[in-house]
Task: inverse folding
């Protein structure tokens, strides 16, 4: 019975998960420096331990209602094409083990070509968790623009 560990985070009262092996770190929210002429979902850049790190607002990327920043807001940091990128989430406070048999593939309704970042749906006792691969949140063109920031 194989299982994987997922970092569970919240966006606008919904639960999402990302494979813990893809997460470099989770840090408290830091105000970013705005960069002109970037996509609307790019919040800006921060200096994270000496590395200039672009910050993506996942609520803006997913067209979710902006509920603002509070003390629970976190930045999940991953590597995309050898570049550190942070994603703003409402809360990231759990790591859960989900067995492979409790993960279903994404329903056709949400699994289109532009939804390749949805790796599955995790079924837990009292909730459903949409499992994401944050590396595929951005299109190839958007990844190139992120590479050029700073």
Result:
């Amino acid at each position: 019975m194989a299982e994987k560990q997922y970092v569970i985070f919240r966006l606008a009262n919904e639960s999402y998960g990302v494979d813990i092996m893809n997460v470099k770190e989770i840090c408290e929210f830091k105000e970013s420096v705005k960069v002109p002429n970037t996509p609307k979902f790019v919040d800006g850049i921060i200096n994270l331990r000496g590395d200039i790190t672009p910050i993506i607002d996942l609520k803006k990327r997913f067209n979710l209602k902006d509920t603002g920043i509070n003390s629970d807001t976190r930045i999940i940091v991953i590597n995309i094409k050898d570049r550190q990128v942070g994603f703003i989430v409402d809360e990231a406070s759990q790591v859960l083990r989900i067995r492979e048999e409790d993960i279903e593939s994404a329903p056709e309704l949400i699994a289109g070509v532009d939804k390749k970042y949805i790796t599955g749906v995790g079924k837990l006792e009292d909730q459903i968790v949409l499992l994401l691969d944050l590396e595929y949140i951005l299109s190839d063109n958007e990844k190139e623009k992120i590479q050029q920031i700073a």
